[in-house]
Design brief:
Layout: H1 3-8, E1 17-21, E2 27-31, E3 51-55, H2 59-71, E4 76-81, E5 86-87, H3 92-96, E6 106-107, H4 110-116, E7 119-122, E8 125-129, E9 134-137, E10 140-143, E11 146-149, E12 153-156, H5 158-161, H6 165-174, H7 183-194, E13 198-203, H8 214-228, E14 233-238, H9 248-259, E15 263-266, E16 269-275, E17 280-286, E18 292-298, E19 301-304, E20 307-310, H10 312-316, E21 320-321, E22 326-330, E23 335-336, E24 342-344, E25 349-350, H11 358-376, E26 390-395, E27 401-414, E28 420-435, H12 436-454
Parallel strand pairs: 3-4, 3-11, 4-7, 11-24, 13-14, 13-19, 14-15, 22-25
Antiparallel strand pairs: 1-2, 1-7, 5-6, 8-9, 9-10, 12-20, 16-17, 17-18, 21-22, 22-23, 26-27, 27-28
Helix pairs in contact: 2-11, 8-9
The structure holds flavin-adenine dinucleotide (FAD).
Residues 56-61, 80-83, 89-90, 92-93, 124-125, 150-152, 179, 210-211, 214, 311, 313, 346-348, 356-359, 361, 392-393 line the site of flavin-adenine dinucleotide (FAD).
Length: 456
């Protein structure tokens, strides 16, 4: 069935208005009309051949938007974003513990759109039809010539609650994972502020997840908060891995030297069940002989991070792979294997050694901008691709941080069938010695990223 009918007939309130901030700075109201025969509204007039639709106005999507316009001024670039305001996940742990104000993390979506000439539409994307090159949203449909998907992650609570969506949502609200920007972070901050002692558990998921060092940084900063506010609490980290990764030595040194009696790190410990009424976790602990025992652990507050998966839009677009539905791409351009006009970037990407980080999403945004601008300007795929680098800082107290950087290179290899392919290989360098110079570097890095994405 036609995507626009299929999805928009589901939307009952068809007289809603959506607001577009265009490159000229004008705000246009696109109003759907419940009396139309088709009951399907177009968000924008038909494309004239150079339209790039970007799904997700986060780290990857906004980088791509700015740089496509910069390199191909004739392109018509439209960003579809469901949030009303940009809030950053990077640096949010410092906000949760009260070290920085909220406006440090937030930006408006309008200034960058006006300055760089792309169009920002606040709406929720509901489906993607590659055959008709159409994106369906809660407010109408839009066609594209090129599509960039940067919608981030979703949670998969099924190993704890099966298909019980209500329990999953209850867990998200009562024990917020705070990997997706917005209410989860604010709720976790409130839980911390109201915490008056006991076990504060942070659980790390199995598999790939958004910002691998973020839970370890959060543990250190919460311990620091307990110490400063004289709270008789323990921060208990449950980690399926045998040591923190990345920056393990730096985190372990901070836990021991700064928070010896506050942080308890439990390796090889995977949460298998959650009882929200009793405030109990069932934890599988594997010992050195690979023998697993089940333990019950009580919590007074918890930051439970479930298994991560790609946004469901990646599967809806038919460009996903595996159970987690990560986007399946061709190295190194982020063009999907299934469709040369569709690109996936950011945390939705799978099959590469890239960590799920804002730094990498920004680098990937630059790569797809080069690729798409080159095509719009009449050339073919760019042969030379500058691979992104990852720079990642983690605060361990008010002023000091540790860091890691990673670079990537393209190597020639063969697939299982013996065909010549190119693979991306990474190499990392960690700085595990905490220092206030790295603490300053954390904020400098963040401000640099914000300038690259939003301008001065
Ligand atoms: C606590 C924490 C700390 C972190 N610290 C760092 C750090 O120090 N350094 C670092 O490099 N990275 C860090 N990260 C990781 C970083 O935040 C992510 O890797 C980055 O945001 C990924 O960019 P993205 O574009 O893929 O996704 P996002 O930035 O999440 O953007 C996705 C956008 O898509 C929108 N969207 C989703 N679905 C729809 C839909 N259906 N319709 C319309 N819009 C939609 C979302 O609202 C969102 O704005 C941290 C993450 C966390 C949680």
């Amino acid at each position: 069935m036609d995507i626009s009918r299929r999805n928009l007939l589901k939307a009952s309130g068809l007289s809603v208005a959506t607001f577009a901030v265009t490159g000229s700075g004008a705000i246009a109201a696109v109003t759907s009309d419940s009396k139309t025969d088709e009951r399907v509204k177009k968000l924008m007039p038909k494309s004239t051949g150079k339209r790039v639709v970007i799904v997700g106005g986060g780290w990857g999507g906004l980088t791509a938007a700015r740089n496509i316009k910069k390199k191909a001024p004739d392109a018509e670039v439209v960003v579809l974003e469901k949030r009303a305001v940009f809030t950053s996940c990077p640096i949010s742990n410092e906000w949760i513990v009260g070290e920085i104000p909220l406006d440090f993390l937030t930006r408006d979506f309008f200034t960058g759109a006006k300055e760089y000439g792309y169009t920002m539409l606040q709406t929720t994307v509901t489906d993607i039809d590659r055959k008709s090159k159409t994106v369906a949203t809660a407010n109408g449909t839009i066609d594209y010539d090129y599509l960039v998907l940067s919608p981030g992650i979703r949670y998969d609570y099924s190993s704890w609650f099966g298909d019980d969506a209500q329990m999953s949502e209850r867990c998200r609200q009562e024990c917020p994972p705070a990997l997706i920007q917005g209410s989860e972070h604010a709720a976790l901050k409130k839980i911390l502020e109201e915490f008056d002692g006991g076990n504060f558990i942070i659980s790390i998921p199995d598999g790939a997840y958004r910002c691998p060092p973020a839970p370890y940084e959060r543990a250190a900063l919460i311990a620091n908060y307990f110490k400063k506010n004289d709270i008789d609490g323990k921060v208990i980290i449950l980690d399926p891995k045998e040591s923190p990764k990345p920056k393990g030595p730096g985190f372990m040194a901070a836990y021991k030297e700064l928070y010896g009696d506050i942080v308890e790190y439990h390796p090889n410990s995977s949460v298998k069940g959650v009882d929200l009424d009793k405030k109990e976790l069932k934890v599988a602990v594997t010992d050195a002989d690979l023998k697993t025992t089940m333990k019950t652990l009580k919590f007074d507050a918890a930051n439970l991070i479930p298994v991560n998966a790609a946004s469901e839009l990646i599967e809806k677009a038919g460009v996903s792979m595996g159970r987690a539905g990560w986007g399946q791409m061709k190295a190194p351009t982020f063009q999907t294997k299934a469709d040369e006009r569709v690109f996936v970037i950011g945390d939705s990407v799978g099959g590469y050694p890239y960590p799920k980080s804002g730094s990498i999403a920004n680098g990937q945004g630059h790569i797809v901008a080069d690729q798409i601008a080159s095509r719009i300007n009449g050339a073919k795929e760019l042969a030379n691709v500058t691979l992104p680098i990852n720079t990642c800082y983690s605060m361990v107290n008010d002023t000091e941080a540790i860091s890691i950087s990673a670079s990537f290179s393209l190597v020639d290899t063969k697939d299982p069938q013996g065909n010549a392919i190119k693979k991306i290989k990474g190499s990392k360098k960690a700085n595990n010695k905490r220092s206030s110079a790295l603490g300053k570097g954390t904020h400098n890095w963040f401000q640099g990223m914000m300038t690259d994405i939003f301008g001065a």
